[in-house]
Amino acid sequence: MVAGVGNAKHNVHVMNISTGKKVKGGSSKLTGRVLALSFDAPGRLLWAGDDRGSVFSFLFDMATGKLTKAKRLVVHEGSPVTSISARSWVSREARDPSLLINACLNKLLLYRVVDNEGTLQLKRSFPIEQSSHPVRSIFCPLMSFRQGACVVTGSEDMCVHFFDVERAAKAAVNKLQGHSAPVLDVSFNCDESLLASSDASGMVIVWRREQK
User: Fold this and answer.
1) What are the tens digits of pLDDT across the range 113-131?
2) Using one digit for the tens of pLDDT, what is the confidence trace for 32-62?
3) Count of alpha carbons within 13 Å of 77, Cβ hemisphere only?
4) Spatial distance between the Cα atoms of 3 and 22, rounded to a whole number of angstroms
5) What share of the chain is helix, strand, coil (3-state, %, to 5)?
6) Short-list 31, 27, 23, CA closest to 2
7) What percent of the chain has pLDDT over 90?
8) Which InterPro entries would you find in this protein's record (predicted)?
9) What is the mean pLDDT of residues 5-14?
10) Phi/psi of residue 127, each to 5°?
């Protein structure tokens, strides 16, 4: 099993989790400090975002461990890419592979993956507050088994925001309030019964899903 790691020296490495060593040929370099990484579900594509506003896609050969740089997208020059989350398909209605990106632009960005080299095409964006903090977002784990498709993100307005990415109008479907500092990260358990959110003050809140 392997994992992608990045560092402040602009390097991306694929690591063998069993040995803790870098995979031979599994290294490359970005234009800035590496802040976010995400593999696709099959493990053949890796995206990496840096502090200069770029997202790079890499082809990963699982047989040899070789990492090959494929495409580069400048999300916004100088705007740090703080979160990347990949999804093979968003919902029953939207079966294209997708990427969810935070990039200090006061909005959450949803991209469509349009080819086997990881080329990205902006699908839509959602308003949040993020201009300086390393805010992160996620796809809801069970989205493909229900109507609609939700994503969740932190925000500098001290709230947790939920958006339905397939809803044409009024995409915001929920907002959780309880933090007293910018919300930096969010994470569901596997069945979505619990959501954890953390903020810049060090507080973690665990939210329980309301039972119907």
Assistant:
1) 999 999 999 999 999 999 9
2) 999 999 999 899 999 999 999 999 999 999 8
3) 0
4) 10
5) 0, 50, 50
6) 23
7) 77
8) WD40/YVTN_repeat-like_dom_sf, WD40_repeat_dom_sf, WD40_rpt, WD_repeat-ST_regulator
9) 96
10) -75, 125
| 91/164: higher pLDDT | 164
Cα separations in angstroms, 83 against 60, 93, 147: 20, 25, 26
Q: For 97, phi and psi rounded to 5 degrees?
A: -60, 145
Amino acid symbol at 78: G
pLDDT of 96 reads 79
According to DSSP, the residues that pair with 122 across neighbouring strands are: 111
Sequence-separated (6 or more) residues with CB below 8 Å from residue 202: none
Residues whose CB falls within 8 Å of the CB of residue 211, separated by 6 or more in sequence, listed in order: none
Taking the C-alpha atoms of 183, 184, 190 and 195 in order, what is their torsion angle to the nearest 10 degrees?
Answer: -20
CB environment 168-178: b (16+ within 10 A), e (fewer): eeebeeeebee
Contact 152, 192 (CB under 8 A): no
Domains of the chain: which residue ranges?
Answer: 1-127, 132-211
Q: Which of 12, 100, 92 is nearest to 58 (CA)?
A: 12
What tokens does 98 get? 């997708």
